[in-house]
Amino acid sequence: MEEQLEGIVTRHRENEGNIISILQDIENEFGYLREDAIYWVSERLDIPPAKFYGVATFYAQFHLKPKGKNVITACCGTACHVKGSERLINSLVKELDIPPGEDTSEDLRFTVEKVNCVGACSIAPVIIVNKAVHGKVSPDKLMKEIKGLKAGASKN
Amino acid sequence: MGKDISIKVCMGTGGIAAGGVEVMSAFDTAFSAAGITASVEKNCSMHKVGCRGFCARDVLVDVSVNGSKATYEYIKADMVERIVQEHIVEGNPVNEWLVKDDYHTFHDKQVKVVLSDCGEVDPEEIDSYIGREGYEAIKKVLTSMSPEETTKVIEEAGLRGRGGGGFPTAVKWQMALRAPGPVKYLICNADEGDPGAFMDRSVVEGNPHALIEGMIIGAYAIGAPYGYVYIRAEYPLAVERLYRSLQQARERGFLGKNILGSGFDFDIKVKLGAGAFVCGEETALIASIEGKRGMPRAKPPFPVQRGLWGKPTIINNVETLANVPYIVRKGAAWYAGFGTDKSKGTKVFALTGKIQNSGLIEVPMGIPLKEIVYDIGGGIEGGRKLKAVQTGGPSGGCIPAAMVDTTMDYESLARVGSIMGSGGMVVLDETDCMVDVAKYFLHFTESESCGKCVPCRVGTKRLLEILNRITEGRGREGDMDLLAELSTDVKTSSLCGLGQGAPNPILSTLKHYRDEYEAHIYEKRCPAGVCKDLLTYSVLEEFCKGCMACIRVCPAGAIVGEKKQPHRIVQDICIKCGACFETCKFKAVKKG
């Protein structure tokens, strides 16, 4: 871990980075903001961990808990909302056993997250499965995709 | 004899989602297949292009043979072989796959300035932009115009901020030019956070060099050596193309020290937004670039006096800046020729929702809303009736169907209680509940409120609570008055635009759709059939064929019945998701 963090810190020292860009890199590197990583960077840069925590909890992009192996992002923009995104989300949460109030299944296989708008409104409703954008998603189509993923995930 | 062939495949986010990458490689495979290469040996070019607006028809493919162009719609990879064989080799376009008349009506009333090169240039190739007079404007400015003269052109063109506020761009630039000191910043706000809007994404994905050129011109006009693009991390394709274009512009000497030998220095950095709607507010955006929590502060001092790192700063929106090179190249008079007296030029809108032709459109300011909905948009999906058009996102309002004659300019929209906003335009039909729409936006602003000032932090929460109870059948006498009063308080006393605009969706729906609120509160009924708690689903036995389709789709297992016998919905188990209602082919499920 230290080696990766050293790299991140050096890179941002050279490029006048800031707390946000450091956190973005940590998130990219580890998939979420590991507590030990934040403490390490905080000590290294002599910036109180509370500053990192303050920024991390302000922006929607950061996660304080690990994400699942498969990340399914549901767009909740206006166009998706009027085209039934809520129903898609409900069926995802149910199908993938996401505990209430959480976004990741207990076995860390799936994360279902909502985002404000991915800007692909003309193909609403939109679901992003592991970075691949799917447009005009119907509940049937979505379930097929998810069942495929589930089968794939259990093989690994 | 060889032919001049050019293939353009739409590869914006929409195009890629519809299979653009596969279509591209299918063309590649088809061209390298035996026989084809020989017959098309001369000048065959293939390009990915950005969004051409009509994303609902993706993948769109242009095939030009010796200059005669045909456009195909809904293209999948397995259709490519036939296009190559029949159209390119044999010279007979595949008529059944070509775009139909509605593709042309979609474009007929549009006037493309900002989007004129989107869908034409290859966004990953600087030469493609240069080939269409790209970077000519910056040459003209740096060799023959002073900063004052440059701003003068923008002033005469009447360009106003396209991010929503409509503040005259030239006035901003003049103030920044007069601000003292050698260090100034020009920031491009590409943190398009409005749900239902994707104009900026499409410009950055489709023609990033126009934005870069606009920024160089703006920076020259205000004397700023440093620029930033603050862009959403949720737009990975736009970010990638922006980085690539900046690198290309640097290599060609359009960015960096001593640009084109003029002695002017300017370079652009990219900052990724981390997902906070409030960062669209200028001072919050600046705090975010500085690495802090993106919370706004009181103004004055305005950013042009004290902005990024305490230095004079101006912030322009993507669309505003991307207009600039075209204005400089074609002249202020040409641009001012579009639009109305006070709102000049064109505006890009993201036309979405329950509309037949959904997509990205650019129209002259002052066009009547009905021409957008019925001519360009082709009317309402599924032949249903128009109910309202929501403009301006979470700070905007709803224009009811009765006011469809409203013209799209800053002043007329303000008169009907909405705003231009950044250009989101969501069409709603009779199956949409206006109380639910207001609740949707309040849910959004409540969760995006940064929490700094009390009226917004607490006020949006209370407003949302009231809307929640109305839609859940617990509305009380006096709720409408309470909503109106609290909305006015939040509007007048919040610190920034987020709080000041947050009550607009409530105020405008209260004004135009009072009867819907009344039905929810007094009759515990949702006329549009949207609010779950006010609905019940039941099976009409006389229509039910007992096909079991609804039993299969019901996620709660709430439907019982034998094959070929009428089914029944167990109300205690039903979660009111509506899956049975949509699945039943015999209209045997009743909602109400």
Would you mind describing this structure in some detail?
The complex is a heterodimer of chains A (156) and B (592). Chain A has helices spanning 2-14, 19-30, 35-45, 49-58, 78-82, 85-95, 139-155, and strands spanning 70-75, 110-115, 127-129, 132-134. Chain A is of the alpha+beta class. Chain A has a 4-stranded mixed sheet with strand order 2-1-3-4, with helices on one face. Chain B is an alpha/beta fold. Chain B contains 25 helices and 17 strands. The mean pLDDT of chain B is 93. The interface between A and B is large, with 43 and 60 residues.
What key attributes describe this structure?
heterodimer, A: 156 residues, alpha+beta, Glutaredoxin, 2 domains, four-stranded mixed beta sheet, B: 592 residues, alpha/beta, Rossmann fold, Ubiquitin-like (UB roll), 5 domains, five-stranded mixed beta sheet, 17 strands, 40% helix, globular
**Apparent shape of chain A:** elongated
pLDDT < 50 stretches of chain A: none
Strand order of the largest sheet of chain B: 10-9-13-11-12
Structural domains of chain B: how many: 5
Shape of chain B: globular
**What distance lies between the first and last C-alpha atoms of chain A, to the nearest angstrom?**
25 Å
Number of strands of chain A: 4
- State the major sheet of chain B: 5 strands, mixed
Low-confidence stretches of chain B: none
Proportion of residues in helical segments of chain A: 40-55%
